[in-house]
Amino acid sequence: MTTTSDPQHALAAFDQELERASLQGHWKMELPKFMEPRSRLHAMHWRWSQLEDFLMRSGDLITVNDAGRRTVQLMNPGISGPRQWTTHTLQMSFQLVLPGEVATAHRHTMNAIRFVIRGGGTFTTVEGESFLMEPGDLILTPGWTWHDHINESEEPILWIDGLDVPLVFALNGAFIEEYSAPQQPVKRIVRTVADGTEGPDGSTWYFKGPETEARLRQMARSARSDEEVIFEYRHADGRPTLSSMLCGMQLLRPGEVTPSQRRTSVGIYYVVGGGNGVTVVDEQSFAWERGDAIVVPNWTWHQHANHSSEEALLFSMSDRPLLEPIGLYREERR
Ligand SMILES: [Fe+2]
User: Fold this and answer.
1) How many of the other CB atoms lie within 10 Å of CB of 296?
2) Distance 244 CA to ligand 1 centre (A)
3) Which residues lie below 8 Å from residue 237, measured CB to CB, with a gap of 6+?
4) Are 94 and 160 a contacting pair, CB within 8 Å?
């Protein structure tokens, strides 16, 4: 009960009363006359020489049995809290599986992709479908599907893991379960597109590298010279790669400079190969080469330039499918 006659004092006392009851008056907040997203993410660039060195050294220090998964995770210092992630919605990590190792079977509500960088003779089994992993392949592990990885080759295998774990944690929706055995039974082995690339739900779970490249080159032939050449990993009915993630592969022609653009989605890029170039993010310039990873924060002006005489390929992960259905996706060019 407010007893003072000074109005300001009375309001301060009233605010305190509200606070004690876990309430707050809207007058405590300033209503902005203009607002647009201001990302707390930092624009980031990791060099492959460093990533590869750390990843290979982790192979000497950590066994897959100790850790369950041996990954080196990209961390964004713009994210504070109990732990950092690559972005506030999506996580990119690099995984190493040595010859003979098995990353044991489990499932989780987080959606995941694997994009193979180097190696072969390794299988990722998802719900009994065992997919051969070769450089350039993209393999999906939709949420709550059993998955395990086995390297049956003589060489280490390296791949990118992309997960929506920051989003799932933010929504407090994480379930994780271990399988009753190190590996699940294999129902079918899939090595090429001829073996069928669909998972048991009928959507594509396996995008082979050579097919992706062929599609890109076909797109490049028919594109106008000022048009960007981007293959999006979509299902036959047009749905994005995963409900929370759209993956893409951009072909940058020799000398190409993309328009400066910004989107409300985040972009995580990995330089698959070809030429070298520069990505400008706001005021920062990141000179990249094969294997480098870059984070473009949401609603941040950026452009890519291929400074070499070779075609360059940029693999990307974006959270656009989360934003579009709720009217939050926007993009601008200048
Ligand atoms: Fe997993």
Assistant:
1) 30
2) 16
3) none
4) yes
Instruction: Give residue for tokens 């890519």.
Output: 304
Distances (CA, A) of 313 to 229, 253, 296: 10, 9, 17
Q: Are 318 and 248 in contact (CB under 8 A)?
A: yes
Q: How many residues are recorded in the chain?
A: 334
CA 303 to ligand 1 center in whole angstroms = 33
Residues 84, 75: contact at Cβ < 8 Å? yes
Residue 78 CB neighbour total at 10 angstroms: 17
Tokens of 142: 């939709």
- What is the C-alpha to C-alpha distance for residues 263 and 301, in angstroms, rounded to an integer? 8
Residue 97 structure tokens: 């599986």
In the block, tokens 């790669």 appear at 241
Q: Name which of 156, 39, 174, 29 is nearest 106 in CA terms.
A: 174
Taking the centre of ligand 1 as the mean of its atom positions, its distance from the CA of residue 12, in whole angstroms, is 51
Are 216 and 249 in contact by the 8 Å Cβ rule? The answer is yes
Q: 168 C-alpha vs ligand 1 centroid, how far in Å? A: 13
Distance, in Å, from the CA atom of 113 to the CA atom of 93, rounded to the nearest integer, reads: 11
Quick: pLDDT tens for 273-292.
Answer: 888 999 999 999 999 999 99
Taking only the tens place, the pLDDT of each residue in 44-91 is 999 999 999 999 999 999 998 888 899 999 999 999 878 899 999 999
Using one digit for the tens of pLDDT, what is the confidence trace for 223-275? Answer: 998 999 999 999 999 999 999 999 999 999 999 999 999 999 999 999 998 88
